[in-house]
Design a protein that fits this description.
The chain is an alpha/beta fold. Helix content is 43%, strand content 17%. The strands form 3 sheets. Strands 11-8-7-6-12-13-14 form a 7-stranded mixed β-sheet. A 5-stranded mixed β-sheet has the order 1-2-4-3-5, with helices on both faces. It has a two-stranded antiparallel ribbon with strand order 9-10. The longest helix has 26 residues, at 389-414. It is globular, with a radius of gyration of 22 Å. It comes from Candidatus Daviesbacteria bacterium RIFCSPHIGHO2_02_FULL_39_12.
Length: 434
């Protein structure tokens, strides 16, 4: 089953529990628009190369399309449609005034100079400019994109659109109009209109949901956790959980990971620092105040696949799609699977975990803290206001806990798992706007 077909299976499962207007289910099974571009990139040597770019605008019933831009050589349209679909569901679950979108460029940015990367980002923006904007489609960072690239996109978009702004009496563009143009993307640097708290937003939002879940289940502490993926989401989630008394007994990156078989847990602050220095986790077996090579410890090095099958309380897939499948779902020993990656569990694996009594917190709720703070950034840009970090985090906590409560209540009332409950909630909100 393809990733997109798996996503639609999740949609259809939820649709059985809610009466939808005629034609809505069919409408939600395909994106509204797919934009494909051939972008000329002038290389540093003067040669021109054409790069394939795209934007999937899935649905905007709730508001402007919203979702990331990824720069990656192995772009798969099936995957991107699924990701855009999940953004639609995710925004509805957390009650944000956004629809779903996704896009990017088929390129490995590691093969480009900084100047080439900037030229490509700006050229991409020129091509996309008629189809994006604060009231139309609001991209954000994703794989291999960051605040610097979002700053370039926002700057280029402002240049393109400024010619259409009204002119004041003194011959100057209206400042408030120009300020709002920054809302074309989120995930910008703070000095260029970005929001406080954006970097750790996904991890912090996940933490707020996890805390509520543990209280509902009455899970006794200390709680053991394994995290697959140590990028922005995984490393920030690990740090937040470590600081709040969770025992992080295994973490991994693309090259493999480390495992503390004694279940005492790693010093994640040292692990993060060590990885920055060494470049890989297997060299960072940090217990207490000491770091050493994991290979010196029995079973200290662990593969990504073996990490998924550890006997722990909480398994957090925070890397890529489709890591829990029908082939390994019966080997999962965690009490809770908490999805911080997008689409880490296939539809077939979902059914297996559910039958085995393993509780799964779905991605469309668990990792929605990032897009929630992106919404706060967009709102700050649109209203020309600046929020403090305290306000951002307080509002994030409120949004995440409210969404959790509603999903939990639907799950109990309809006697369905949490993923289906989240989809029911999303569909109810979409129906209310159609």
């Amino acid at each position: 089953m393809s990733i997109f077909d798996s996503a639609l299976t999740q949609l259809n499962n939820a649709a059985r529990h809610i009466k939808l207007p005629e034609g809505l289910l069919e409408k939600l099974q395909q994106p509204e628009r797919i934009i494909q571009l051939n972008i000329p990139l002038k290389k540093d040597n003067g040669k021109i190369e054409l790069m394939k770019g795209y934007r999937v605008q899935y649905n905007n019933d709730l508001g402007p399309y919203k979702g990331g831009l990824r720069f990656h050589p192995q772009v798969d349209m099936d995957e991107v449609k699924a990701l855009a679909f999940w953004m639609m569901i995710k925004n509805a679950v957390v009650d944000l005034p956004f629809g779903g979108g996704k896009g990017g460029i088929e390129i490995d940015p590691k093969n480009l100079s900084v100047k080439e990367l900037e030229r490509l980002s700006r050229e991409f923006t020129k091509f996309l400019a008629p189809n994006i904007g604060g009231g139309m489609d609001v991209p954000a960072p994703d794989i291999n994109t960051n605040a610097k690239i979002m700053d370039w996109i926002a700057d280029e978009y402002i240049k393109v659109q400024s010619a259409n702004l009204p002119v004041g009496k003194a011959g100057c563009k209206v400042k408030s109009e120009k300020t709002q143009l920054r809302a074309v993307v989120t995930g910008k640097s703070i000095k260029n209109g970005g929001s406080e708290g954006r970097e750790q937003a996904t991890g912090l939002g996940g933490y707020f949901v996890l805390e509520r879940l543990i209280k509902k289940l009455g899970l006794k502490r200390p709680v053991t956790v394994a995290i697959q993926g140590f990028g922005n989401v995984g490393s920030n989630m690990a740090k937040i959980l470590y600081e709040n008394g969770y025992r992080i007994v295994a973490v991994s990156d693309v090259k493999g990971g480390i495992y503390d078989r004694n279940n005492t847990g790693f010093n994640i602050d040292l692990v993060r620092k060590c990885k920055e220095e060494k470049g890989f986790l297997a060299g960072c077996y940090c217990i207490g105040s000491v770091c050493d090579l994991a290979k010196k410890y029995e079973d200290g090095v662990i593969s990504n696949q073996d990490l998924l099958e550890l006997k722990i309380d909480i398994l957090i897939p925070a890397a890529i799609e489709n890591v829990i499948t029908k082939d390994n779902a019966r080997k999962i020993k965690a009490k809770i699977v908490f999805e911080m990656a997008n689409g880490p569990t296939t539809a077939e694996a979902d059914q297996i975990l559910n039958k085995r009594g393993i509780l799964l917190m779905p991605d469309v709720l668990a990792n929605s803290g990032g897009v929630t703070v992106s919404y706060f950034e967009w709102l700050q840009n649109m209203t020309n206001k600046k929020w403090s970090l305290k306000k951002v985090n307080n509002q994030l906590k409120k949004k995440m806990e409210t969404a959790f409560t509603k999903v939990w209540q639907i799950s109990q009332k309809e006697k369905v798992n949490l993923r289906t409950a989240a989809y029911i909630l999303a569909l109810e909100r979409i129906v209310a706007k159609t």
